[in-house]
Amino acid sequence: MKSQQIRKFVHFTLIMLGLLLSLNRSAYADVTVSPQQVVSRYCELEFIGARFDAEQQPKFDNLVSWPAAPAVATRHLVIDRFAVVPLSNDAGYAEVAVDYWVIGILSDNQLQRFSESKSKRIVFRLHEDSSGWRIHAPRLDPHVSLSAVTQYLAQAR
User: Is the full-model pTM beyond 0.85?
Assistant: First the structure.
């Protein structure tokens, strides 16, 4: 009697688990990522210093239309924040602006801090293909946070 109750319980639990997993999968199957979300993710990854780490480069692959090679640039703009602003979105083409507050430059592993932040706006152009929205232009020097630069410099020494 007890083993039959255990079997029923296990059977019921497996059915419920399968149902929950299928519901979870279908809830995310049709998620559309907007151009603004693509640019936000790109900026977030750069901000935390992901382009300093070659192992993090695959995270950029679905965001840009060019091969996301490790940042070999000798110049990185150091920012304290950024804001993403959607501009236009037509069939297959979009523009998204990013306002950056630049506080310095990292060049040849030398950090130069500005006396005050300088704001600048960059307009990203995105194209939509069969796999979704991707940044098409511009290709920029990395824009990274001061904490990511500090950590990078500490590891480089």
Answer: no
Specify the fold of 32-156: Nuclear Transport Factor 2; Chain: A, (3.10.450)
Sketch the domain layout of the chain as residue ranges: 1-31, 32-156
Residue 156: how many other CB atoms lie within 10 Å = 8
- For 90-122, the pLDDT digits (tens) are 889 999 999 999 999 999 889 999 999 999 999
Pairing of strands 93-107, 110-129: antiparallel
CA angle 9, 11, 16 (to 5 degrees): 95
CA dist 67 and 48 (Å) reads: 20
Please report where in the chains the tokens 């040849």 appear, as a residue. Answer: 108
Q: How many alpha carbons lie under 13 Å from residue 7 in its C-beta half-sphere?
A: 4
CA-CA distance, 118 to 157, in Å (whole number)? 29
